[in-house]
Amino acid sequence: MSTRGEAAYAVLSHVRPLHLQAARAVTRRLQGQGITMAVRALLERLEDQGPQTVPQVAEWLDVSRQAVQRVVDDARRLGHVELRDNPAHRRSRLVALTGEGRRAYTALHAEELRTLGALAAGIEPDDLRTCAAVLERLAAALAAAPHGGA
Amino acid sequence: MSTRGEAAYAVLSHVRPLHLQAARAVTRRLQGQGITMAVRALLERLEDQGPQTVPQVAEWLDVSRQAVQRVVDDARRLGHVELRDNPAHRRSRLVALTGEGRRAYTALHAEELRTLGALAAGIEPDDLRTCAAVLERLAAALAAAPHGGA
Fold first, then answer.
1. Between helices A125-144 and B99-119, what is the axis angle to 10°?
2. Minimal Cα distance from B123: which residue of A?
3. At what angle do helices A2-30 and A125-144 cross, to 10 degrees?
4. Nearest by CB to A119, which of B2, B22, B150?
5. How far is CA A65 from CA A41, A71, A107, B19, in A?
6. DSSP state at residue B92
């Protein structure tokens, strides 16, 4: 148990620095394009999940609805998202990608994958997949722990 | 390249949620002990690296010196750290663990390893080690990238 605990601890101890490094790199890359990291995250969510309400996005990103509303306003000013009526909830409109927003995100993401592929050139794809699966399982285990894990 | 890029992207996409889950879990666990997550991080750094100046801790945690100074003040009030003269820099004193601070951190960390070992019970230790190594290499590659990676 102790070996496994120490190995899991080593994973978690690398998560924070990598999170910071990745956030900084994404921010630098986006600077020239007038897109913030938050707008990028919104576009990704809408591309992956289809139109969402502000509360849905807020829950996913684990930030306040007010914060999401500001990001939606920014993305609308850029022409990347639009509001649509929500058949399910009259008072909570849907945020959806525009054609331009989809094109912008697709180009951005293709470039990210190219850069990441080059960065990870020395790492076996199987090891990357193992790593992603481990992170997903740890996050799920932590989320399910009654009193919170480590 | 694209497969590797996508696999690396999958890793990064799990880093942020796991970082949030872990921070929340640690915070919950520390609440009963009067230790904040920041104080815990300070104690860990001093245990692993020996006495450090405030600027050294600030650089490692990637936060401001003022923020570290507040954490050091909190830890001193708890009796977990003390200031010592620094033979190398007269104006930058060293922050060091007290005996009580070391005992508190050791007990805390042993409990974390037990909890994490239980949480990760279904994950192969080798996969955890592969994951930690991948995260470390990705963070290093991102840090070394001239214009920032993904």
1. 100
2. A134
3. 110
4. B150
5. 15, 10, 28, 21
6. S
Q: With an 8 Å Cβ cutoff, is B50 touching chain A?
A: no
User: Out of A9, A21, A114, whose CB is closest to B112?
Assistant: A9
Least Cα distance to B15 among A130, A23, A106 occurs for A23
Whether B135 and A132 lie within 8 Å, measured CB to CB: no
Angstrom distance (rounded) from CA B80 to CA B85: 17
Mutate to test the interface with B, among A14, A18, A20, A108 (most CBs of B within 10 A): A18
Residues with Cβ within 8 Å of residue A34, at least 6 apart in sequence? A78
CB within 8 Å: A150 and B9 = no
For A1-35, the pLDDT digits (tens) are: 468 999 999 999 999 889 888 888 888 888 777 78
Pairs across A and B, CB distance < 8 A: 230
Per residue in B7-18, pLDDT (tens digit) is: 999 999 999 889
What is the complex's ipTM, to 2 decimals? Answer: 0.81
The alpha helices in B31-124, defined as continuous H runs, are 37-49, 54-61, 65-77, 99-119
